[in-house]
Amino acid sequence: MTTAPVEITQDLTAIHRSIDQRRLQEKIFILLGLLSILFALLALTALVLDLFFRGLPILNWRFITSPPSSTPEEAGVLIAWVGTLLVMVVTALFAIPMGVAAGIYLEEYAPKNWFSNFIEINISNLAGVPSIIYGLLALGFFVYTLNLGQSVATAGLTLGLLILPIVIVTTRESLRAISSTIREAAYAVGASKWQMIADHVLPYSMGGILTGIIVGISRAIGETAPLITIGALTFITFLPDSPLKSEFPFISFAWLQSPFTVLPIQMFNWVSRPQEAFQVNAAAAGIILLVLTLGVNGLAIYLRYRFRKGIKW
């Protein structure tokens, strides 16, 4: 008669011991995660501080508004940061509308069959393809086949292809995260499929979509390999043509065909030189690139905040 209570006590003891072991494992895992995050933040902080300590003393208006020069004291980043902004404009205008539209189609309209599954798998794989492959693709297609040349348009389209899978995947995930009750409620009041997507699903998912756009643009703005592959210049002393002009229609697209350079390539050029002064110039250019990246991200975060604030829950 005393065997059953003893067995129950032993079972409870084993269960408590198992629970204690799992709690200990959970605490160890949390501690390792926190230490990993702390190490990454410390390394990042050290790199950023080193960048600022080296480059901030020479970062002034002359440096920002001067073209490159063979003399480090006279060299500046005007051509590079203007080229970076123009390339990012083309990248955003190409990748964002096409990526969002493709994500909407694949998630809301495409039939669920083997062909759409094949497309989904390839899009996911393209998000992990090395950027140099996109450079080789652009060299053969944009430069030689379409005869766009080594221009701002070619660079923007190349980086647009680079971030297109990221935008598509995040758009689909954001749309998929929206509850089906919102779709059913829209249909219940007589909305068509497109009205349901445009007026209900898309506004609620815009925060996640903009997050994907932020990630994509942040990757594109620092890319060097594909732009070197398509022939970006490492030394250029003249600005691209202005997008604005004084005569009607006051807009010019000649800048799309202009030669260019960007900040990462300018930094690469300076870092490869033996003079210490050029190394300092590269650090200052890195600060400007960091500010540009944070500025683009800040704009996207602000737009995301405005979209979320405008939604009535």
UniProtKB/TrEMBL annotation:
Its main location: membrane. GO terms for molecular function: phosphate transmembrane transporter activity. Residues 81-300 form the ABC transmembrane type-1 domain. The chain crosses the membrane at residues 28-53, 78-106, 126-146, 152-170, 201-218, 280-303. GO terms for biological process: phosphate ion transmembrane transport. It comes from the Bacteria. It is found in: Cell membrane. GO terms for cellular component: plasma membrane. Keywords: Cell membrane, Membrane, Transmembrane, Transmembrane helix, Transport. It is a multi-pass membrane protein. Belongs to the binding-protein-dependent transport system permease family. CysTW subfamily. This is Phosphate transport system permease protein PstA.
